[in-house]
């Protein structure tokens, strides 16, 4: 009788539902508990120096324009003599993506060793997906190695949450570029009306220093490259279609030299850059797993050492520990301002929706939030502390960047850089709205309200419910 009842209970629909629930559990449970920062990391971090009273050997340029960002990459690739390293979260085979491929292949033709690593999500969607033939063409060159970090494997759902979110370029032992831009039209060049505003730091080495940020970044890359989670992507067969892509990319390189002539002139990096006191690399753990929040701990400790602070972030999705960290700033009388996207202009619907749900909780921490409404969505990730420290890179103020993804930020002691970004922040505040002491919104003089369409209002209303159980993984 019991056996008959059990067999009757196990209908196909219930079996499928049970399997789906198990899969969701395997996908999420490993990341539900947030790890704490180990005592050893806390001790090592406390011993690091992030400020210097003397001028250092590393000079920088600040890149806040998409076309300039593409020009810098093209010129850097052209200057390479031994090796090019490119790490990116997203790498699309769109116009700017093919620009980058064409320049990389030309460098490889000159004998330059090229190593590229992309995240597994981009690897699934672009490298192995719609852009496959272009990436196979790139990988077909004997001087090009392409790896995918933590490839999407549906048979291992417990691995799928961890992503490679770093974005940087290293040229030989002399220069690198690091920030928040992905390799696609949205961030590079002027190929689409839709753009994301972002900031990057170009670092130029004037002396060979073993403790420089370049050495720190190079060491970080080598560890990522050698992980078991980083899998080789190869050209399986040089088909006629792939050979056509190679021909197209070679022609594209010739066109690039005509279209972007400025990128193919001799750049005086000494004149293009300005001095810094010290540059330090901040990172998260490398492995594709639930992570200790190294980055948040590092930024929070630096914030606590300051007298005032400002954070640029595309969106805000805080966990319990992050809320506590922000509240601690208020308790220590360290005023904090945050510039994030207005819900009507944000490019990440999940982040926008969570802000609608969490707005009052965020304000209770004491942070003054400016909701930015510019011509384009703001993708900048930066922290300003007092008038010297600027922290720029890939880290979003959210739980994914804190506990799940690899992240890189440069902590730069430079009054000049701090002043440049602070001036931009003051301008962006005029394009923002913020809540006053009476709880009502105050609009900046350049703020232009944008009404959500009826469809978007319905969309966000639905997402506001869906995001509640999912917010740790957004």
What does this structure look like?
The longest helix has 20 residues, at 240-259. The two termini are 47 Å apart. Helices cover 41% and strands 20% of the residues. It is built from 16 helices and 22 strands. It is α/β, with parallel strands linked by helices and 474 residues long. The protein has two domains: 58-272, Endonuclease, Chain A, CATH 3.30.870.10; 290-473, 2-Layer Sandwich (Endonuclease, Chain A).
Number of helices: 16
N- and C-termini, Cα separation: 47 Å
CATH superfamily of the largest domain: Endonuclease Chain A
Shape: globular
The quaternary organization reads as single chain
Q: Which structural class should the secondary elements be placed in?
A: alpha/beta
Major sheet attributes: 9 strands, mixed
Alpha carbon gyration radius: 23 Å
Unreliable residue stretches: none
Helix content: 40-55%
**Percent of residues in beta strands:** 15-25%
> How many domains, in number, for the residues?
2
Please provide the count of β strands: 22
Estimate the mean pLDDT confidence: 93
Side-by-side strand order of the widest sheet: 9-4-3-2-5-6-8-1-10
Which architecture of the largest domain per CATH?
Answer: 2-Layer Sandwich
- CATH class identity of the largest domain: Alpha Beta
């Amino acid at each position: 009788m019991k056996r008959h009842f059990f067999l009757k209970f196990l209908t196909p629909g219930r079996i499928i539902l049970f399997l789906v629930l198990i899969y969701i559990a395997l996908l999420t449970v490993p990341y539900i508990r947030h790890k704490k920062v180990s005592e050893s990391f806390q001790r090592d971090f406390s011993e690091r120096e992030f400020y210097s009273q003397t001028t250092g050997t590393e000079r920088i340029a600040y890149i806040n324009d998409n076309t300039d960002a593409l020009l810098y990459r093209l010129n850097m690739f052209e200057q390479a003599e031994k090796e090019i390293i490119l790490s990116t979260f997203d790498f699309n085979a769109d116009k700017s993506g093919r620009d980058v491929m064409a320049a990389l292949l030309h460098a490889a033709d000159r004998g330059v060793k090229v190593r590229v690593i992309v995240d597994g999500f981009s690897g699934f969607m672009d490298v192995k997906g719609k852009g496959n033939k272009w990436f196979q063409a790139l990988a077909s060159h004997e001087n090009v190695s392409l790896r995918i970090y933590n490839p999407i494997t549906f048979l291992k759902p417990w691995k799928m949450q961890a992503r490679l979110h770093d974005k940087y370029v290293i040229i030989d032992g002399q220069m690198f570029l690091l920030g928040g831009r992905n390799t696609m039209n949205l961030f590079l060049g002027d190929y689409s009306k839709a753009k994301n505003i972002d900031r990057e730091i170009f670092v130029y080495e004037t002396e060979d220093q073993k403790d420089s940020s370049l050495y720190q970044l190079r060491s970080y890359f080598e560890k990522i490259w050698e992980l078991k989670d980083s899998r080789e992507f190869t050209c399986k067969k040089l088909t006629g279609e792939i050979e056509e892509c190679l021909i197209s990319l070679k022609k594209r390189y010739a066109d690039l030299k005509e279209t972007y002539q400025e990128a193919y002139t001799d750049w005086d990096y000494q004149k293009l850059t300005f001095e810094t006191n010290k540059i330090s690399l901040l990172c998260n753990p490398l492995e594709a797993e639930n992570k200790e929040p190294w980055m948040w701990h590092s930024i929070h400790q630096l914030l606590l050492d300051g007298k005032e602070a400002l954070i640029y972030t595309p969106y805000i999705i805080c966990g319990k520990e992050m809320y506590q960290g922000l509240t601690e700033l208020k308790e220590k009388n360290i005023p904090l301002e945050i510039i994030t996207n207005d819900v009507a202009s944000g490019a990440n619907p999940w982040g926008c929706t969570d802000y609608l749900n969490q707005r009052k909780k965020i304000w209770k921490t004491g942070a003054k939030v400016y909701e930015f409404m510019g011509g384009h969505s703001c993708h900048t990730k930066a922290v300003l502390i007092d008038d010297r420290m600027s922290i720029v890179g890939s880290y979003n103020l959210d739980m994914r960047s804190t506990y799940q993804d690899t992240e890189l930020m440069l902590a730069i002691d430079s009054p000049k850089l701090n002043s440049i970004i602070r001036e931009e922040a003051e301008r962006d505040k005029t394009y923002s709205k913020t809540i006053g002491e009476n709880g009502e919104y105050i609009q900046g003089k350049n703020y232009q309200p944008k009404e959500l369409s009826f469809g978007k209002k319905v969309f966000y209303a639905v997402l506001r419910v869906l995001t509640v159980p999912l917010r740790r993984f957004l």
